[in-house]
Structure formats: C-alpha cells, structure tokens
Amino acid sequence: MRIEEVTSVDPELVASLRGLISQLSPSADPPTAGNVREIVDSPTTRLLVARGGDGEVVGSLTLVQFRIPTGVGVWIEDVVVDETARGRGTGEALVREGVRLAQAAGARAVNLTSRPDRAAANRLYQRLGFERRETNVYRLELS
Fold first, then answer.
1. What is the pTM of this model?
2. Residue 20: helix, strand or coil by DSSP?
3. CA–CA separation, 44 vs 80, rounded Å?
4. Are 39 and 45 spatial neighbours (Cβ–Cβ below 8 Å)?
5. Does residue 132 lie within any of the structural domains?
6. What is the pLDDT of residues 100-109, one digit of tens each?
7. Number of structural domains, the chain?
8. CA distance linking residue 90 with residue 68, whole number of Å
9. Is residue 13 situated within a structural domain?
10. pLDDT level of residue 143 (50, 70, 90 thresholds)
C-alpha cells in the first residue's frame, strides 16, 4: 500500500472516490469529476489516496489548510477506507501523511471531527495522539 497526493483527475479516480464517499456518508451526493478537480486544483485542499498492491484506490483523506491571523489552520476531512481494506493500517497511513504535510506547512495543530458511531476511526485518532477538545461544534444548514 502507498499513499500519494492526487495531482490529476481521471475516471478511475472519480469512480473510486464515489464508492468510498458512499461508504462514509450514504446520504452525501457522490463527487463528480468537476468536484474532484476543484479539490485537486485548489491551493487550500490536498487530496490523498491510498493505493493497494495492484494500484486500486482503497482509501482517501482531504487535507484543508488555510492562513488565519493566529497561524496556519489545518483540518483533516472525509477520511475513509474501503470496507474490504479496513484493519490493515490504511487509515493510519493516510492520517500520518496528512499530519506530516500539516507540519511541513507550519501548522501547530491538526483538527478533525468524527461521528461517535465511527468507533474504529475514533480509536485510531486517539491512538495517533488526537485529543478530544472541550468545544462546541455548530452547524448552520444552508439550502
């Protein structure tokens, strides 16, 4: 398995991400080629994928980094590993590479959220040193 940053978009990548995102959030609209291209082309997002031994995409992570008055803000978003590839260190490798890139960008911290029902993911994040924050997360749904 290898972790790589996506620099170009092709139909195989888009199809793989559609399958992964449906596993992460069945209610989410699957990404289009345009959506994926926008992520790859943006200076504030980096798309990482994990590829299995035969080159197939088995996981992904989006790293969001941005300048704020207090430094470099970084969030890890939409971490997902294909259900057939879980339990083999793929999620850990993706997150470790995201953290490495955040450090290289000068971030002092990396943030992420995870639903409580994603027990394995929550255990992974804690094992990697992420700590639960005493904060409120707010959301305003826009139509």
1. 0.94
2. helix
3. 20
4. yes
5. no
6. 999 999 999 9
7. 1
8. 31
9. yes
10. confident
CATH number of the domain that 110 lies in? 3.40.630.30
- What would the two tokens of residue 47 be? 């798309």
Q: What are the backbone angles phi and psi of residue 107, rounded to the nearest 5°?
A: -70, 145
Task: List C-alpha distances in Å: 80 to 34, 43, 70.
Answer: 20, 22, 30
Residue ranges making up the domain that contains 105: 2-127
Instruction: Report d(CA 47, CA 75) in Å as an integer.
Output: 12
Give me the sign of the Cα torsion angle 119, 3, 45, 41: negative
Among 41, 51, 44, 69, residue whose Cα is nearest residue 13: 51
Tokens of 30: 């699957």
* Residue 24 pLDDT greater than 90, yes or no: yes
Q: Is the dihedral of CA 82, 83, 87, 91 positive or negative?
A: positive
- Is 138 part of any domain? no
For all residues of the chain together, what is the average pLDDT? Answer: 96
Sheet holding 45-51, edge to edge: 2-5, 45-51, 57-68, 71-81, 111-112
Looking at residue 88, what DSSP letter applies?
A: S
Tell me: the pLDDT tens digits for 49-78? 999 999 999 999 999 999 999 999 999 999
- Helix (H) / strand (E) containing 53: none
